[in-house]
TrEMBL record:
Coiled coil: none annotated. InterPro entries: Cyt_c_assmbl_TM_dom, DsbD_gamma, DsbDN, Thioredoxin-like_sf, Thioredoxin_domain. This is Protein-disulfide reductase DsbD family protein. It is a multi-pass membrane protein. Residues 581-710 form the Thioredoxin domain. Its main location: membrane. Residues 1-32 form the signal peptide. It comes from Bosea vestrisii. It is found in: Cell membrane. Keywords: Cell membrane, Cytochrome c-type biogenesis, Membrane, Signal, Transmembrane, Transmembrane helix. The chain crosses the membrane at residues 311-337, 358-384, 390-410, 431-459, 465-491, 503-525, 531-549, 561-579.
Length: 719
């Protein structure tokens, strides 16, 4: 018997070891309950499931796990004096639902002079998932989640991650014991119902009393974490006396319900305890905030906000904005060319002048229609095309070639003449149409008064209404040129064609060169030194290609074909080089302005407001002429810098030179389809911003800063 049992034991042990080895070599089942991690230098996050397989009709727990680097912290649902809570956005199969985050007990994290509520080291955020009863065994349940969180040390960095879990559906669910134990431990540590109701009452003008009738007699280290962020000053001490905590009343105090919730932590017998607390709010406190808060003072210069507009008023604003747009520096060079064209034909044919005016109108309307359709369809902003460095470089090339054409460096024959001097020449219907198109393209960097509100309103309307607003803008833009073409009396005042027209034509080349220089600078802001090199190479190749075609004009057909092929080959190679080189730089763009503006983010604004600092936010772009003009005229002025320094105003810049979805969303929130947008936030947590006009003066900026700070200062402007 003994002799036969030994081989069996040996065989059994060998079978055990083989099974363990196979398990180690097959990691998929072991990792099925956890998603691929999202890792940064600060946080490693993953989605953890308590099940390896789920059954129809089952409810089970998943958890977003965050392992934080030493010194860094993420935030609770009320982040305290600054910060932002973690959010999870689920994409789930039909019938599957996800509950809310079950928030663990936070810590009070002091970041002088503030106190944040959040988590250090590691945290699990449990969420309950419900599987529908009609789920079919044999299929796969895919849980997809996008989470966003803010992680802070001395600086704050917003992070995000996409997580996917594929769980098989089986007749009976399979528990992942290790994951279940981790999640169970986190759920067991969640705040327990207090079993008693607290009372919140006023205690003088700036204090509150939180009476805790069920608090154990020997409790120590008591702290209340409110869910409402407008209840108390989070950094203040919370002394306990006679079973009541004394809390410092928030300067932005507001309670809108008869009860308020929170978490109470304390020590009892050396053990830490946490309770989910509900407190009845004294009616007098509710009455104290019944009166509406005083809204920030509004500047009366800009048009009403988009939500106050009607379609008729938006159409009027759009037409007025289009009229004013003609005075912007972006458009003037092209309008000069059109005026020169009128001068050439004014003494000859009234009908031809009118025909060119109408063709100009057609070019404006057609180009506005194309741009407006793209803006509406893509949800993009006005001037979106200038966020593409290759297109900016193409415009720089076009402006340079038009300039050299105007000074007579070369002549473009045939149909191409409509892009240069022929834009305004007699008998050039294509030229008149293309002048209107070009005027619209170069107008997009500018934003005129009334335009912002009208276009912001347009983006909130159905496509037909939105398109009508853009067409009203186009009509206003084209109106001066069309009116001039139908005013023979004005045209007769022009002198007869002569040498003065040649001189004026050559003089108009220099605004084109200036525009080209600006566009090259925009490309540099977008793509760094490589962008500038790409622009200069593109200008060189375009010029050489035109010269090559021109110098072979009049030669044999074979030589002309060879020159055209060589020019096309050069242009193709240069285009590939531009597309490859003109990649937007990841670094912040450097623009003139007040000294060292900070980089904008909603979290940064909230943090500065929590510190009691007013905030000025400049939504701008390197390609926005109106933005640059405001910067030179107002924001770079020394009196504005001095006022900001005396008032403690923090200056942030939101740079939309390259595409940025967060900036686009904020612009839309304020009813704007593009930049500029200027916001001034008071120095109190949660206070709403004042929207400044689209055209700034030093007086406007300083006055808004004074209102935000709640005080007056003497500056060169104010005196």
């Amino acid at each position: 018997m003994i002799a036969t049992s030994l081989p069996r034991r040996t065989a059994f042990r060998l079978l055990q070891r083989a099974t363990m080895a196979l398990a180690l070599l097959a990691p998929a089942p072991l990792l099925a309950a956890e998603s691929a991690p999202v890792t940064s230098a600060r946080v490693t996050a993953a989605l953890l499931s308590s099940r390896d397989a789920v059954a129809p009709g089952e409810r089970f727990q998943v958890a977003l796990t965050q392992k934080l680097a030493p010194g860094w912290h993420s935030y609770w649902q009320n982040p305290g004096d600054s910060g932002e809570a973690t959010k999870i956005d689920w994409t789930l199969p039909e019938g599957v639902s996800a509950g809310a985050i079950q928030w663990p007990t936070p810590k009070a994290i002091r970041v002088e002079p503030l106190v944040n509520f959040g988590f250090e080291d590691h945290v699990l955020l449990p969420v309950e998932i419900s599987v529908p009863a009609n789920a079919r065994p044999g299929e796969t349940l895919t849980l997809s989640a996008k989470a966003t969180w803010l992680v802070c040390e001395k600086i704050c960095i917003p992070e995000e991650g996409a997580f996917t879990l594929d769980l098989p559906i089986a007749a009976t669910g399979a528990v992942d014991a290790a994951a279940q134990a981790r999640i169970d431990e986190a759920i067991a540590a969640l705040p327990k119902p207090a079993g008693f109701t607290a009372k919140l009452t006023a205690k003088g003008e700036d204090k509150l009393a939180l009476t805790l009738p069920g608090l154990p007699p020997g409790a120590s280290d008591v702290r209340f974490f409110p869910l409402l962020d407008t209840l108390i000053e989070h950094a203040a001490e919370q002394p306990l006396a006679n079973g009541a905590l004394t809390l410092a009343r928030s300067t932005a105090f507001k309670v809108g319900t008869p009860t308020t919730e929170g978490v109470l932590t304390f020590a009892e017998g050396g053990a830490k305890r946490t309770l989910a607390l509900s407190a009845e709010v004294e009616p007098a406190l509710l009455q104290a905030v019944a009166a509406p808060e005083q809204a920030p003072a509004k500047v009366t210069l800009p048009p009403p906000p988009a939500e106050d507009l009607t379609l008729l008023l938006a159409l009027v604003f759009a037409f007025a904005g289009g009229l004013i747009l003609n005075l912007m520096p972006c458009v003037l060079p092209v309008l000069f060319i059109k005026a020169l064209g009128f001068a050439q034909v004014a003494q000859a044919s009234r009908g031809e002048v009118r025909r060119q005016g109408l063709l100009f109108l057609a070019g404006v309307l057609a180009t506005f229609f194309v741009l407006a359709s793209l803006v509406i369809a893509l949800g993009a902003g006005w001037g979106f095309q200038l966020q593409s460095p290759p297109l900016v470089i193409l415009l720089a090339v076009l402006m340079t070639l038009i300039g050299f054409n105007l000074i007579g460096a070369f002549e473009i024959g045939g149909r191409l003449q409509g892009v240069g001097d022929g834009l305004a020449s007699r008998g050039g219907p294509v030229g008149a149409f293309m002048t209107g198109a070009l005027a619209v393209v170069v107008a997009t960097p500018c934003t005129a008064p009334f335009m912002g509100a009208a276009m912001g309103y347009a983006l909130t309307q159905p496509p037909a209404a939105a398109l009508s607003i853009f067409m009203a803008l186009a009509l206003g833009f084209a109106a001066p040129v069309v009116a001039l073409s139908f005013a023979p009396g004005l045209l007769r005042l022009l002198p007869k064609p002569g040498r003065w027209m040649i001189i004026l034509k050559q003089a108009f080349a220099f605004p084109m060169f200036a525009t080209a220089i600006w566009l090259v600078w925009v490309a540099t802001m977008q793509a760094g030194a490589d962008g500038a090199l790409a622009a200069l190479v593109a200008i060189l190749v375009a010029g050489f290609a035109l010269w090559l075609i021109g110098v072979t004009r009049g030669s044999g057909r074979g030589l002309r074909a060879l020159a055209a092929a060589a020019a096309l080959l050069l242009v193709g190679a240069a285009s590939a080089f531009v597309i490859e080189s003109a990649t937007p730089s990841a670094r912040p763009t450097a623009q003139a302005g007040t000294d060292a503006p900070g980089v904008w983010s909603p979290a940064r604004v909230a943090e500065l407001q929590a510190q009691g600092k007013p905030v000025f936010v400049n939504f701008t772009a390197a390609w926005c002429i109106t933005c640059l003009a405001n910067d030179r005229v107002a924001l770079s002025r020394q009196e504005v810098k001095d006022a900001f320094a005396k008032l403690g105003v923090a200056y942030l810049k939101a740079d939309w030179t390259n595409r940025n979805a967060e900036i686009a969303a904020t612009l839309a929130e304020y009813g704007r389809a593009g930049v500029p947008l200027y916001l001034v936030y008071p120095g109190s947590k949660g206070a709403q911003a004042e929207v400044l006009p689209q055209l700034l003066t030093p007086e406007t900026v300083v006055s808004a800063a004074q209102r935000a700070a709640g005080k007056e200062v003497k500056t060169a402007t104010a005196r």
